Structure formats: C-alpha cells, structure tokens
UniProtKB/TrEMBL annotation:
Residues 1-71 form the HTH merR-type domain. The keyword DNA-binding applies. Keywords: Activator, Coiled coil, DNA-binding, Transcription, Transcription regulation. This is MerR family transcriptional regulator. Signal peptide: none annotated. CDD domains: HTH_TipAL-Mta (cd01106). It comes from the Bacteria. The keyword DNA-binding applies. Residues 77-104 form a coiled coil. SUPFAM superfamilies: Antibiotic binding domain of TipA-like multidrug resistance regulators (SSF89082), Putative DNA-binding domain (SSF46955). Gene3D superfamilies: 1.10.1660.10, Antibiotic binding domain of TipA-like multidrug resistance regulators. The lineage of its organism: Bacteria, Bacillati, Actinomycetota, Actinomycetes, Kitasatosporales.
C-alpha cells in the first residue's frame, strides 16, 4: 500500500511543504511515483519519517539525522532504544522547565514593588502572589526563573499595566477568533500563538519553540492553567495548545 503526500502529512502532523523539503534534500525520498509524477510513500517510508521526526524533536540538525539513518551498520532497534532514552530525559527536563517558567510568570511577584492598592489596580481580582512561594521553592534555581526576576525587578507600575493590557487585548482577540470558527491551524490562530510566545519573551524570558510546545501541552494537562484559559471561553486551552503546536511546526519545519 502507498500513500499520497497529503495523507502522510496528516498521519505525521507535518506540512506537505516539510515533506517536499525532505525529498528535495534527500532525507526522505518517496519510494514510488504515480503515473502523473506525484509522490507516493510506502510503509518503509513512513518508518523512516517516524525516525526523522523523533530525532528532529530531540534537536538533531537534519544533516545529522541523515547520517544517523543512512549508517549501514545501524540497528533499527538500537535507534528506537536510544531515542526512547533521549526522549524520556528531554520530556522530564522540559516538563520541569515549562512548569518553572510558567509558575514564575504566574507569580508575577518577583521584584514587584507595588502597594496592595496598586497591585489591585494593575491585576484586578487576580492575586499576583498566589503561586509565588511555590514557584520560588520548586524552581528558584532555574535560569528562566532568574531571568524573569531580573526583568521584573526593573518594571514600574506603568510597565505592569502595559503587560496586563497586552494580555487582555490578546485574550479578547483570541476568544473572538474561536467565536468566529477560526481553526487552530489557521493563519490567524497561529499568529496569535506566535504573539503569545513573543509576549513572554518580551516581558519575562526567551521561549524557544520547543519550550512553547511544552507550554501548550501543560495548558491542557495542568488543571490550573486549563481552568484559567477555559475561563475565557470553554475549549480555549485545547485550541491554544493546538495553535501553538501548529505555529511551532510552521517555524521549525
């Protein structure tokens, strides 16, 4: 059995453009062509694509992936064992990083020299110190937390009002997008996901796409974050997660 490039893209969660690129550089050349010259992928091609995506997710450059997969002495089972070990370690590390930076951002109390009245004025009914102690106890030693502290210590009340205004504006536009039937993989949703990533990078710490993917998964898996986003509109947490994944794919493929 063979599959069209569109079906393979759907199976793998990548874009057709990505598969074309892999073919162009010789990383994944489909085994067959239709009479019209269209790409057709067989099961062996899908196995290779799975290996490519594993290694890419682990941060290997595509040229190194090609070398690894084309090694005639490589045992496919050894590939899988190695990838499983690397992925397990990466998942645990990123899970901790994502929780650390998100909790640090939610705390919003590092270096904020505001009176109680000013905090209420800036953050409304949200308590900026709600998760501060937990965040510092669990993640105070991370670089992301330290960077967030350094930046936050320089912000004035007007800076925090700008932060909150940007958040409110983004929320309004995202809920309107969902109300209008916008899909997570659509340009508008991906643009808002990118805006979300850049907002964190502007005010708190840099967020690579791989880390942003972890944030998206956490927005659904962590009840507190899911409740926060779903309070804007039911289903928004999962919609945002999918938009973040699609946006990351768009920028890293």
């Amino acid at each position: 059995m063979s599959y069209t490039v569109g079906r393979v893209a759907g199976f793998a969660g990548v874009t057709v453009r990505t598969l074309h690129h892999y073919d162009d550089i010789g990383l994944l050349t489909p085994s067959e062509r239709s009479h019209a010259g269209h790409r057709r992928y067989n099961d062996a091609d899908l196995d290779r694509l799975q290996q490519i995506l594993f290694y890419r997710e682990l941060g290997f450059p595509l040229d190194e992936v090609a070398v690894l997969l084309d090694d005639p002495d490589a045992d496919p089972r050894a590939h899988l064992r190695r990838q499983h070990e690397l992925l397990t370690a990466r998942i645990e590390k990123l899970r901790k990083m994502a929780a650390a930076v998100e909790n640090a951002m939610e705390a919003r109390t590092m270096g904020i020299n505001l009176t109680p009245e000013e905090k209420f004025e800036v953050f409304g009914d949200k308590d900026p110190e709600q998760y501060a102690e937990e965040a510092e106890e669990r993640w105070g030693g991370t670089e992301a937390y330290a960077e967030s502290q350094r930046r936050a210590a320089t912000y004035t009340k007007e800076d925090w009002k700008r932060v909150q205004a940007e958040v409110d504006d983004w929320q309004e536009r995202y809920t309107a997008l969902i109300a209008a039937g916008g899909q997570p993989a659509g340009e508008a949703a991906m643009d808002l996901a990118e805006e979300h990533r850049r907002h964190i990078g502007t005010w708190y710490f840099e967020v690579p796409y791989e880390m942003h993917r972890c944030f998206g998964e956490m927005y659904v898996a962590d009840e507190r974050f899911k409740a926060y986003y779903d309070s804007m509109r039911p289903g928004l947490a999962e919609h945002l997660r999918d938009a973040i994944l699609a946006n990351a794919e768009r920028h890293t493929s």
